[in-house]
Write a structure and sequence with these properties.
There is one protein chain. The protein has helices spanning 37-58, 61-67; strands at residues 13-17, 20-25, 30-34, 71-73, 76-78. With 96 residues, the protein is an alpha+beta fold. The longest helix is centred in the middle third of the chain and has 22 residues, at 37-58. It has two helices and five strands. The protein has one domain (1-96). Strands 1-2-3 form a three-stranded antiparallel β-sheet, covered by helices on one side.
Length: 96
């Protein structure tokens, strides 16, 4: 396999769930976890690299990223805009 430089800033949220840390990026709909923050960050990096590597091996990277809302520019792929739940709110009427 040829060496491909794929550098992009991914939006990622890391949160604690029970005794574990969970990392999630909506830009790839990819999650992983670990028992420590450092382990979770390492696992997340490994998961993203494996995801990209498998897509490249299968020849589906362009189609997969396009289907996920990424756009291809001269400089490479640009992830979709992800609005954080902290900066975006929706009013939902509750009927109790």
């Amino acid at each position: 396999m040829k060496n491909i430089n794929f550098e992009v800033a991914l939006p990622v949220t890391i949160f604690r769930e029970g005794d574990a840390f969970v990392a999630h990026t909506p830009a790839l709909d990819l999650s992983t976890c670990g028992s420590t923050l450092k382990e979770t960050q390492r696992n997340f990096s490994d998961a993203v690299n494996l995801f990209i590597e498998v897509c490249i091996e299968k020849g589906t990277l362009d189609d997969v990223l396009a289907d996920m809302g990424w756009t291809k520019k001269d400089s490479g792929w640009v992830p979709p805009l992800v609005v954080s739940h902290e900066s975006y709110s929706v009013q939902i009427p509750l009927h109790v």
